[in-house]
């Protein structure tokens, strides 16, 4: 990298012209920039992934509702929908949500999607009471805002 300059009798060392490679400062600046970008991007990505998992859970509640309505047309009651002789109402539990139908009466129902694993703290429901179908967010984890009668899909409480 360096060559001796023997002209003039001195023992001075001069850098070679056209050296290749990066200096330590350049590498440190690059690592710092990558670290800053990662610290900004990672939380946004994690929220994006959560919103996708929530959308999957909510999309599963719709077919449950359709199966309940079909059961009501066939039997004139929702009461036996989650029993042992019921249609295949309940979808298989997923890695992130467990689906249940805790409240079933002859003319009303409530089906829920409850978070598990990384989605713990989330609970959504779809219910029919008095002929009115309602969607609600039963719980959200700390840091999320829970609003009225809608399915919260974003951290700020928007539906």
Automatic annotation (TrEMBL):
A Pfam family hit: N_methyl
SUPFAM superfamilies for this protein: Pili subunits
GO biological process terms, semicolon-separated: protein secretion by the type II secretion system; type IV pilus assembly
Transmembrane segments: 20-42
Classification via InterPro entries: Bac_GSPG_pilin (IPR000983), N_methyl_site (IPR012902), PilE-like (IPR031982), Pilin-like (IPR045584)
Key words of the record: Membrane, Methylation, Transmembrane, Transmembrane helix
GO CC annotations, alphabetized: type II protein secretion system complex
PANTHER family according to UniProt: GENERAL SECRETION PATHWAY PROTEIN G, TYPE IV PILUS NON-CORE MINOR PILIN PILE
Name recorded for this polypeptide: Prepilin-type N-terminal cleavage/methylation domain-containing protein
Native species: Rhodoferax aquaticus
């Amino acid at each position: 990298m360096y060559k001796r300059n023997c002209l003039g009798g001195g023992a001075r060392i001069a850098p070679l012209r056209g050296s290749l490679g990066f200096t330590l400062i350049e590498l440190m600046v690059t690592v710092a920039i990558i670290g800053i970008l990662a610290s900004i991007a990672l939380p946004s990505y994690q929220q994006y992934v959560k919103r996708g998992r929530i959308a999957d859970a909510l999309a599963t509640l719709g077919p449950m509702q359709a199966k309940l309505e079909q059961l009501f047309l066939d039997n004139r009651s929702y009461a036996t929908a989650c029993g042992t002789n019921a249609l295949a109402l309940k979808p298989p539990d997923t890695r992130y949500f467990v689906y249940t139908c805790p409240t079933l009466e002859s003319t009303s129902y409530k089906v829920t999607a409850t978070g598990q694993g990384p989605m713990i703290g989330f609970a959504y429901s779809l219910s029919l009471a008095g002929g009115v179908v309602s969607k609600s967010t039963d719980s959200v984890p700390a840091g999320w805002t829970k609003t009225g009668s809608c399915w919260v899909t974003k951290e700020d409480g928007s539906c």
